[in-house]
């Protein structure tokens, strides 16, 4: 019976998309182009170097080297192996869904148990600083000083999620015994593990690098499809009147939290796609800045159903379950929202007072934020060229391999 209900629901969803696309072709095309622009200007060029580099680091044993050295830190705090430190750092630097891709890769290599992988993926998918400082704080709010507050709420909240998730899976201790180690950690042992990993890689460098490029581009093409479809789906929900209905229900909750009704539509949009939701929140009228920050912090932490669908697709190739990740996103959203209230005065209000007094410390921080905003603008300008060049390179690699066969 449950399977039949699921089949009916999926069929109705497909019919809804088909009829809505026929009914609103112009608006659907506009939303599709918007999603495509975001993918080839920002997402593809910003994630591709990280994906390729991560594949090389894993294949050459550098990740195992890092894992052995960071085992005494990651195991007690997050109850995951030391390789989790690499996934955590790469996830913060490159943004979602890098954490899911790297976690799945390490799970396939048996460097993580299933429970450990589910813990790790729950707190290693984060928005990158480029998006928080460049797109949200500067692009949407036109306020560079807001970047530190949003970043602190986002990354500290993610860390708190990781600490909470260390208690996940305690009822299955046998599943996490595989990677436990009581041996003394030395630099020599870490290097030996690196050397052994490199020897176990049979492919020559040329083929290995080509496989890394193709695998990364394949993943990014999938991500692009999700971004475009959810951009269209979000627009169609609004056009057919479903979004206002949901907004009415959420408005009751917002009244209890003393948040204005004007934030309900941006909040719902952000639940589907974080970029549009953040932009609409910044443009919402009759909302004070703190209320907007609370809403944006939750949206960034929740990741949006678009990113969650990307993560689910990546995890589908492994035995890692999606539910712990989804529950962790809700927990992260709550943590980020609460932190935005607690940190708003010390990291934003007090900071503006310091900047007005030309404090050297805050001037340096402002210069740091200016770097991210300038980098974001440069990426938008050259991103399409990088995307086209990368796709051309992938096509050339595939063509040469077809000729050899």
TrEMBL record:
NCBIfam families: spore_ylbJ (TIGR02871). InterPro entries: Gate_dom (IPR011642), Spore_IM_YlbJ (IPR014226). It comes from the Bacteria. Keywords: Membrane, Transmembrane, Transmembrane helix. Residues 43-139 form the Nucleoside transporter/FeoB GTPase Gate domain. This is Sporulation integral membrane protein YlbJ. The gene is ylbJ. The chain crosses the membrane at residues 47-70, 120-141, 208-230, 236-256, 288-305, 326-349, 379-399.
């Amino acid at each position: 019976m449950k399977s039949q209900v699921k089949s009916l629901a999926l069929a109705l969803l497909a019919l809804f998309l088909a009829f809505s696309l026929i009914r609103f072709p112009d608006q659907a095309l506009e939303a599709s182009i918007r999603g495509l622009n975001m993918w080839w200007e920002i997402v593809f060029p910003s994630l591709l170097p990280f994906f390729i580099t991560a594949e090389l680091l894993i294949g050459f044993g550098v990740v195992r080297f890092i894992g052995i050295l960071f085992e005494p830190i990651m195991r007690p705090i997050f109850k995951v192996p030391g390789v989790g430190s690499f996934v955590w750092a790469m996830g913060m630097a490159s943004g979602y869904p890098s954490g899911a891709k790297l976690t799945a890769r390490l799970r396939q290599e048996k460097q993580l148990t299933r429970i450990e992988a589910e813990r790790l993926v729950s707190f290693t998918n984060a928005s990158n600083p480029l998006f928080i400082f460049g797109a949200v704080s500067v692009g949407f709010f036109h306020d560079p000083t807001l970047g530190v507050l949003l970043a602190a709420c986002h990354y500290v909240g993610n860390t708190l999620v990781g600490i909470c998730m260390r208690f996940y899976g305690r009822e299955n201790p046998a599943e996490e015994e595989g990677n436990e180690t009581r041996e003394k950690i030395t630099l020599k042992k870490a290097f030996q593990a690196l050397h052994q990993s490199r020897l176990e890689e049979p492919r020559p460098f040329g083929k290995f690098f080509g496989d890394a490029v193709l695998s990364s581009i394949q993943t990014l093409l999938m991500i692009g499809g999700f971004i475009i479809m959810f951009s269209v789906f979000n627009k169609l929900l609004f056009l057919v009147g479903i979004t206002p209905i949901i907004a009415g229900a959420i408005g009751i909750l917002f009244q209890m939290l003393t948040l204005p009704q004007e934030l309900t539509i941006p909040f719902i949009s952000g639940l589907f796609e974080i970029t549009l939701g953040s932009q609409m929140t910044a443009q919402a009228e009759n909302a004070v800045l703190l209320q907007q920050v609370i809403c944006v912090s939750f949206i960034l932490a929740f990741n949006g159903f678009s990113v969650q669908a990307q993560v689910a697709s990546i995890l589908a190739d492994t035995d890692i379950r999606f539910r712990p990740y989804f529950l962790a996103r809700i927990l992260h959203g709550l943590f980020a929202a609460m932190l935005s209230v607690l940190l708003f005065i010390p990291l934003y209000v007090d900071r503006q007072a310091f900047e007005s007094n030309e404090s050297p410390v805050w001037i340096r921080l402002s210069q740091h934020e200016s770097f991210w905003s300038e980098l974001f603008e440069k990426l938008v300008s050259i991103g399409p060229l990088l995307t086209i060049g990368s796709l051309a390179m992938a096509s050339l690699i595939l063509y040469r391999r077809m000729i050899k066969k």
